[in-house]
Amino acid sequence: LLVSSMVGKDRIIFATKEDHETPSSAELVADDPDDPYEEQGLILPNGDINWNCPCLGGMASGPCGEQFKSAFSCFHNSTEEIKGSDCVDQFRAMQECMQKYPDLYPQEDENDEKSSKDLEAASVEASAAKEEKGSS
What we know:
Subcellular location: Mitochondrion intermembrane space
Order of helices and strands: EEHHHH
Keywords: Disulfide bond, Mitochondrion, Oxidoreductase, Protein transport, Redox-active center, Translocation, Transport
Shape: elongated
Protein name: MIA40 protein
Largest sheet: 2 strands, antiparallel
Organism: Mystacornis crossleyi
Region (Disordered): 102-136
């Protein structure tokens, strides 16, 4: 029994014993290096963010996907001296959205507000340290 998803609809395919006994006629297609949906890492060769990268853990989809994309895009494109310091509003909107879905986005700490501020501060501090190290 196979189930495949087709744009919001499920299709059930029954496979018989005979189906499994015959060799597959499926053909493998060579990977297209320009396909942005292939696993090419977080940043695509053209500099765009690969929203389908498994490294994002699915954060770009789901009920807070748009807020995540906005915050992450802002951080990625930030030219501030402390990278991302101009993205506080976007990160706050993302955190507020995530707090509405605690089952999908569990908080590290019981004090949600404290942990989100710690996360933002750690992110900004890490970026600043990385930039200082790279500029020396």
